[in-house]
Amino acid sequence: MSTCFRFISLFVVSCLCTSVFCQRNSAIYTVVAPSKLRPDIVYHVSITVHDAPSPVDFNVQIFGTNEDRIPVSVSKDLHLDPKLNLKSAFQLFDWNLVTILGNNWTRGITVRNSTKLTFEHKSYSVFIQTDRPVYKPGQLVQFRVIVVNPYLQPRSSQFPIDLLVKDGHGNSIREWKEVYTTNGVASVDFILADRPVLGDWAVHVNVEGQKFHKNFSVAEFIMPTYEVHIDLPTYTTYNNSDVEATITAMYSYGKAVKGEVTLTVAPRTRYNKLNVRPYESFQTKVRIDGSVTVYLNLLKDLSLRTDFFKREIEFFALVEEEETGHKYNTTNTMWIYDKGIKIDLIRTSETFKPGLKYTAFV
After folding, report:
1. The pTM of the whole model exceeds 0.70
2. Is residue 38 packed enough to be buried (19+ CB in 10 Å), middle (13-18) or exposed (0-12)?
3. Measured between alpha carbons, how far is 203 from 166 in angstroms, rounded to an integer?
4. For residues 186-217, b (16+ Cβ closer than 10 Å) or e, as one string?
5. What is the side-by-side strand order in the sheet with 56-65?
6. What is the C-alpha to C-alpha distance for residues 143 and 179, in angstroms, rounded to an integer?
7. Residues whose CB falls within 8 Å of the CB of residue 14, separated by 6 or more in sequence, listed in order
8. What separation in angstroms does the CA of 171 have from each of 74, 165, 168, 206, 359?
9. d(CA 347, CA 337)
């Protein structure tokens, strides 16, 4: 029975790989290769022959044109035994590769099949670093560009790069043409205007037609954020319900916050299906300069009644900064008990044995 091959389909296989299937009767061959190519990267082509009655000879060719439109190609002759897989490597250079082509001769029959490939002209990696993520109007912007090859080696300083800075509206602000790197690094700086366009700016880098960019922000001055804390005793009792609540407000860099704090204290409601009277709450507003201590008597100020059960008390502090009016808040809780004695049962054994003494520790 003679064997020949017929083109069936193109499909994507893991990591954007392109495969070509051809068959007649029960004979099938498969060509699997990446659909994207990059210069100076080894390109692998895998060929498998299924149910062929005899060995198959393939000629695999990759061809295209370079930047000067000059035809270039590389090819290999492969000999495959039936039911075996053969993987071949091609060393590719800076070519504009577009197709992959395979030939097969079996018992005098020749088959030509090809598929389109995508060439990605990325032969360098570019890292753009700025000295800060956010800038204020009038500040100095410093950034550097690091260019390395696929082996992470610095790019040759003989070839310049182009740099461009665009504002938040996409307008070109500064441009540096033919900047030469030193050991793959180019450092540049410029000063922002007093009233620049606010928003996301971008540094654009052009390396032999390959383009890269990195964003940074230009924004008005914003006061640093601050944190609010409430320091409370761990517990108190009904017969001694005097409490000191210390509210602290500090900037992230350690400076005290000046303004006003509103402290609200109220019992947390217990779960109950019956409607109960609303609890009283206590609220006071005082000046704060970094920290302030508020004194209160829970039993009196919250109109609490002595109870056998513990009750949770919630403290809510809202601090308003005097210069900007920015507000931050925090919450903390403490418990009030019937007595200042806590009894714990120390677990010694989880089982009881009939007729034996059991010892418990309190």
Report:
1. no
2. middle
3. 7
4. beeeeebeeebbeeebbbbbbbeebebebebe
5. 71-80, 56-65, 96-106, 109-116
6. 14
7. none
8. 45, 8, 7, 17, 83
9. 24
Does residue 154 have a pLDDT over 70? yes
Model pLDDT for residues 295-342, shown as the tens digit of each residue: 999 989 988 888 778 889 999 999 999 988 889 999 999 999 988 777
CB atoms under 10 Å from CB of 252, counted, come to: 9
Integer Cα distance of 146 and 130 in angstroms: 12
Pick left, alpha or beta for residue 183 (phi over 0 → left; psi -120 to 50 → alpha; otherwise beta). Answer: left
- pLDDT tens-digit series, residues 173-202: 999 999 999 999 999 999 999 999 999 999
String of DSSP letters for 262-275: EEEEEEPPPP-SS-
Alpha helix ranges (H) inside the chain: 298-301
Quick check: 165 and 172 in contact, CB under 8 A?
Answer: yes
* Cα–Cα distance, 45 to 87 (Å, whole number): 6
Task: Please report the beta strands in 290-343, taking only residues with DSSP state E, as ranges in sequence order.
Answer: 291-297, 311-321, 327-337
Tokens of 274: 């019956």
What are residue 179's phi and psi, to 5 degrees? -90, 125
